Structures are given as structure tokens and as C-alpha cells.
Amino acid sequence: MNRGIFITIEGVEGVGKSTNIEFIKKYLDNLNIDYLVTREPGGTLLAENIRDLLLSIDDDSPVELCELLLIFSARAQHIQKVIEPALERGIWVICDRFTDATYAYQGGGRGMNTGLISELETMVQGSLRPDLTIILDLDPETGLRRARNRGELDRFEREHVEFFIKVREAYLQIATDFPKRCAVINAGKELGEVSRDIALLLKTRLFEE
Ligand code: TMP
């Protein structure tokens, strides 16, 4: 049996990840492909509890290193319990954020040492990397406006726009550094156009090799 394909979806807040994941699900349904959709931080009971710790706002918010280690702890659990077993069984995995978010938010946004992130990546993931990473790109001001309209803000959404400008720059740098794995989609276009761009991307990257 062929190993499943591992697809990750990335982008700043309010970029429309959920809507576009719904589109990808329909696309794969039409092709009768067996997949699961999951997210980071999260994806297992324990990892979702860690997510709550990361996103909640209280008097003892994590220092940067604690935040980074919590993210990779959740990731270790998620990979071993959900992602790897699915891929081994030939099931495709669509993951709402993965390690590129760590490079973008902790590396870019917080300015943490990317060498340290890379060491943790190797420790936690071994050779596991996404087969395709879709980076939904949108100017952070528009994204934040959308996110803020959704209601109560989490700990990341409360960051200033300057933070998200750095996050976006880091994502675009990742796309430049890993052009075979990553694709940037302009999420500022009208929804139908974004869906068409994603459909074309999936077709050319995954089904025409
Ligand atoms: P989301 O589910 O709305 O994407 O929220 C998850 C938040 O966690 C988002 O603000 C980005 C942040 N995050 C990191 O800072 N680093 C990471 O590695 C991941 C996966 C998410």
C-alpha cells in the first residue's frame, strides 16, 4: 500500500484556512481519497489540552522557551498517535498548521533562534516533513480584522500587527527556501478564485508528477 500524502495549510490569522480546508476535503472526496483533517497545536486529547494552555490568557503566560517546548510536546504526541499511523495506512493527512507555523510565529514573530527550532524539529519529527504546504497569503491587517470580528481573541490574536507582519515575512521566506514543497496562494482574491487556484495546485503538484 502507498503511504498517505501529508498536506499542511498555513497562514496568518483570518486568512481563511478553515474555508479552504473545506474546499480541499470536497476535492479529495470527489477523487475517493481517504483522508483525515487535523490541526496543530492539537489533534489528540492531550495535544488539545496543551493547545488550551498555549492559547488561553491568564496571569502566568508562558515564556518563549516554554511556549516552544509546549508546541513541540503537542507535536510529538500528534505525530506518533495520529499523523504517522494514518500515513502508514495510506490515509492522507490534511493538517491545519504544522512546523512552518513554529518557524513563522516563534522564529519570525518572536525572533527565537531558528537553529533551536530546527534541532527540535529533527528530534520530534525525524525525517517527517509535509509533502505539500499551502501557504495562504494575505496582508495581516485584513486577516486580523477578520479574526477580530470572530469574537473573543486568543493569546496570539492579541499580538500587534507588527508581530504578524514578521510572521508573514517568515512564511514567504519559507516558501522561497522550499519551493518544491511549498506553494503560496493569494488569499486576498475572491473566494471562488482562491478555490480555483488551490484546485490547480493540487492537480499539478500531486496528480501530474
Ligand atoms: P489557529 O487554530 O487559529 O491557527 O490558532 C493556533 C495559534 O497557534 C495561531 O495563532 C498560531 C499559533 N501557533 C504557533 O505560534 N506556533 C505553532 O507551531 C503552531 C502550530 C501554532
Structure in words:
56% of the residues lie in helices and 13% in strands. It has 8 helices and 5 strands; from the N terminus they run E-H-E-H-H-E-H-H-E-H-H-E-H. The two termini are 19 Å apart. The mean pLDDT is 96. It binds thymidine-5'-phosphate. Residues 13, 39-41, 71, 97, 101-102, 105-106, 156 line the site of thymidine-5'-phosphate.
* Backbone structural class: alpha/beta
Low-confidence stretches: none
Strand residues, percent = 5-15%
CATH topology: Rossmann fold
Instruction: Give the neighbour order of strands across the main sheet.
Output: 2-3-1-4-5
Count the DSSP helices: 8
Helix percent band? 55-70%
| Terminus-to-terminus distance | 19 Å
Protein name: Thymidylate kinase
Pfam families: Thymidylate_kin (PF02223)
Function: Phosphorylation of dTMP to form dTDP in both de novo and salvage pathways of dTTP synthesis.
Keywords: ATP-binding, Kinase, Nucleotide biosynthesis, Nucleotide-binding, Transferase
Brief account:
56% of the residues lie in helices and 13% in strands.
